[in-house]
From TrEMBL:
Major subcellular site: mitochondrion
Annotated segments matching region Disordered: 140-160
PROSITE patterns on file: SOLCAR
Record keywords, A-Z: Membrane, Mitochondrion, Mitochondrion inner membrane, Repeat, Transmembrane, Transmembrane helix, Transport
The keyword ATP-binding is assigned to this record: no
Gene (UniProt): SLC25A18
UniProt source species: Felis catus (Cat)
PANTHER family: MITOCHONDRIAL 2-OXODICARBOXYLATE CARRIER 1-RELATED, MITOCHONDRIAL GLUTAMATE CARRIER 2
Start-end of each Solcar repeat: 6-92, 100-209, 218-307
Entry protein name: Solute carrier family 25 member 18
Subcellular location: Mitochondrion inner membrane
Amino acid sequence: MSSQDLSITAKLINGGVAGLVGVTCVFPIDLAKTRLQNQHGKDIYKGMIDCLVKTARAEGFLGMYRGAAVNLTLVTPEKAIKLAANDFFRQLLMEDGMQRNLKMEMLAGCGAGMCQVVVTCPMEMLKIQLQDAGRLVHRQGSASAPSSSRSYTTRSAPTHKRPSATLIAWELLRTRGLSGLYKGLGATLLRDIPFSIIYFPLFANLNNLGFNERTGKASFAHSFMSGCVAGSIAAVTVTPLDVLKTRIQTLKKGLGEDSYSGITDCARKIWIQEGPSALMKGAGCRALVIAPLFGIAQGVYFIGIGERILKCFE
């Protein structure tokens, strides 16, 4: 059975399982990406390995999973929305949902990405605050900053407590309303839509190169590598947009770090103050995060975990 023949329920299960396994495997690298993108220059971390080592030493192994609970909680509905929306737009835009048409696949992917941000934007908003908290502690510790600057919510969290997603979400809703959770929505769309435009047709073409007429699909290894390559290329390409999104969504700034009024203001300040190379911060991390995520997703679909689970209830 090809992936297009999967029932929507099986697709949702596969998407959820792939998201949960993927997030668990690569979350520390994603944390390093966020911290590298947010720091100005190299005053704290020299690179991904240095960031992970310092995080593990200062915060312990679990410190590398700060914010993972938010992702693990919301990744299943995020994938569910994306998969359901992609199916809907494929049927709407194509006469036959299985007929290959790269332009329509690009549009379907874009539509799915636009629907997905309903969950993606608040999920990343909360995740980024939790991931970046440790960086600010390291920065303040080295600079002997006053403890009053160690709050990670919009106003007044107790300085002796680590921030929690619930506390941050409540503070945002109380002080800014629902729009507080959707800060950076435009930047999220600006990142996710180009990513979909690049990834979906690239994966389709790469995967089609390994199509086997006897089995009716590409081999597991070929699909896995196609997902990794397409995901890596798309991830690195949109890294500048991801840097802008990360900077805009970060609420708590370190001493001397700028606040941004919007996408254009953020891009201008980074370009002038840190140079164009700053827009590629975390590119390697993004490739190392996205490649396994999409490879794992292809593996889950190939194995058919969703179908196996459904058969248990028949």
